[in-house]
């Protein structure tokens, strides 16, 4: 071996020994993965996908029980609630089911179907991704700013109004147990079939004509004004609400004795007195107020009414989609036991005595700019908290709802199909409810005639 060969051998041997020493100090690969920061193992893109938030969330909702709700499986609210896959809700045929709520209001919140987690908790953790910065900045919170419901109505709801923001804030500070938030509650009611409601005050000339009937004369001011104006209407309503049980019963009995022709266009009045008296009592003040001073509406599927804050109303029968600003504040003064009624002075002091024709109560739909195939209409009340989409598809038809700037909530009221959103396909069936994050396209396809309602904000 030459000196050159010997030198090369020694050098290679030293390299081998060095590599062995280094290898002895290198932990196994699985240990490296455990100890290295995750940023050194994945690219920024892969980390983002690893932490990706689901933009479409199927929900489990709840149904409440009020005496005015429809009984057992006759209640659409209960039927839809029971059809949610995996729900623990079951229908008792002897129980009246009134409302199914969808949203994050704490009294009856929605839950994630897959995990059972409260939807609000998920929104709080992922507010930017799900609610969106624009909506958060607009309302200064991470809650859904609207509250959709399905109502199933067997008899008249309480004669009521929802206080405006100023009064709601005062009432909430004064009595947070009864008035659980400081917000107003303007709302819309969209008929899913035949629907009856009392909504707003009739035109003054119509009320004045009815007040000429002898049984109603005691409710007029003792000093007659030259014309029947808003202040006269306020006096009449307050007189009716404060009248004794005996006075109300006497008035109803006397009205029933009048010839039907004397009621003119309001011939429904003697027809509804027995019905309302059976539901509540002949002594209930709400009967006289609603029948004499308020618009009586008979709506069909697809018709909608808008109830502003401070607007007097009472729903009478039917199944509806109701959507409102996020609140549960209400003042009741009729169609309920006296013990459940709020102060008449408070009620009348904040009531808006602005007469309207029945047509003024209506909220007609328009073509939605979010609709790609023209199968969706929008009901857009004059407020910032929400609008409501109605999508109707025949067998085999498709519709795309283009990305909405804020969060939305959809419910299937009839039919079957599927929808694609955020790269995934989801089954649709009656009673299925989904939360969809802002900025997500929704592609619907019907396999059986499909009806979907979507509340949203942007």
From TrEMBL:
Residues 379-423 form the Phosphomannose isomerase type I C-terminal domain. Residues 57-204 form the Phosphomannose isomerase type I catalytic domain. Binds 1 zinc ion per subunit. Its EC number is 5.3.1.8. Its cofactor is Zn(2+). GO terms for molecular function: mannose-6-phosphate isomerase activity; zinc ion binding. It catalyses: D-mannose 6-phosphate = D-fructose 6-phosphate. Involved in the synthesis of the GDP-mannose and dolichol-phosphate-mannose required for a number of critical mannosyl transfer reactions. One of its GO terms (biological process) is carbohydrate metabolic process. GO terms for cellular component: cytosol. SUPFAM superfamilies: RmlC-like cupins (SSF51182). Zn(2+) binds at residues 160, 162, 187, 313. Pathway: Nucleotide-sugar biosynthesis; GDP-alpha-D-mannose biosynthesis; alpha-D-mannose 1-phosphate from D-fructose 6-phosphate: step 1/2. Belongs to the mannose-6-phosphate isomerase type 1 family. The lineage of its organism: Eukaryota, Fungi, Dikarya, Ascomycota, Pezizomycotina. NCBIfam families: manA. Gene3D superfamilies: Jelly Rolls (2.60.120.10), Phosphomannose Isomerase, domain 2 (1.10.441.10). Keywords: Isomerase, Metal-binding, Zinc. This is Mannose-6-phosphate isomerase.
